[in-house]
Amino acid sequence: MHEPDVVKLDIDPVRFGQNFVGSEAFKALFQEGMELIEETAAYLDGAGREESRRLPREESVAYASESMRLTTRLMQIASWLLLQRALAEGEITPDQAQTEKARVRLNSHDTTTTLREYEALPARLRELIGLATRLHARILHLERLLSETEAPPRPQGVNPVAAQLGMLQRAFAPAE
Questions:
Q1: Alpha carbon distance 98, 164 (integer Å)
Q2: Which CATH number is 74's domain given?
Q3: H/E segment holding residue 36
Q4: What residue numbers bound the domain in which 126 lies?
Q5: How many beta carbons lie within 10 A of that of residue 127, not counting itself?
Q6: Terminal Cα-to-Cα distance of the chain (whole angstroms)
Q7: CA distance 152 to 175
Q8: Residues 48, 122: contact at Cβ < 8 Å?
Q9: Which of 3, 42, 111, 156 has its CA at a distance of 20 to 30 angstroms from the CA of residue 172?
Q10: 159 CB contacts (<8 Å, ≥6 apart)?
Q11: Do the Cβ atoms of 67 and 44 come closer than 8 Å?
């Protein structure tokens, strides 16, 4: 008996990243991110500015710190979304995207704000921080998935299971 036949197709595996950035799901994510940026900017320039003026000094410092952290996170999100869209629309090459991706830092932002200070912040700011944090976590997850699928597929070697089955079949084959 021979080693089991293996179906071999002359196609590469589907690349998640190539499909995702052109999908409706990406368009929805892009829209969500841009709307959150606009909402945050409008809040920080309007009602948020007024709310921060009414805070006691300690909470005012926490407000400034958290709003800066929020703005930085949203700019990272915007950069990542715009980079992915440019790549999907062919405005930049994959090599250019890799170069630009190195400049976009999707890192976490540890806070020194205490729970008491955070809870003293205006409710709308806390809501925006929560929305941005969740969106950031989703994008980090997507970036990991995209990075994994961008690596070239490893060449297929000998199937270890098929090799073991072949050895067993040869060992227990009737003598000729």
A1: 41
A2: 1.10.8.930
A3: helix 24-45
A4: 16-153
A5: 12
A6: 13
A7: 45
A8: yes
A9: 156
A10: 6
A11: yes
Domain-embedded: residue 7: no
pLDDT of residue 83: 92
Give me the helix-helix angle, 57-88 and 24-45, nearest 10°: 150
Q: What is the pLDDT of residues 81-92, one digit of tens each?
A: 999 999 888 898
Residue 13 has what pLDDT? 54
Is 50 contained in some domain? yes
What is the distance of C-alpha 160 from the center of its chain? 34
**Average pLDDT over the chain, rounded to whole?**
83
Residue 137: what pLDDT?
93
Q: Is 90 left (phi over 0), alpha (psi -120 to 50) or beta?
A: left
Task: Decide if 165 is inside a domain.
Answer: no
How many residues does the structure list for the chain?
176
On whether the CB atoms of residues 94 and 152 are closer than 8 A, the answer is no
Please indicate, yes or no, if residue 62 is contained in any of the structural domains.
Answer: yes
Q: What is the pLDDT of residue 171?
A: 82
Ranges in the chain, pLDDT < 70: 1-18, 108-109, 149-158, 176
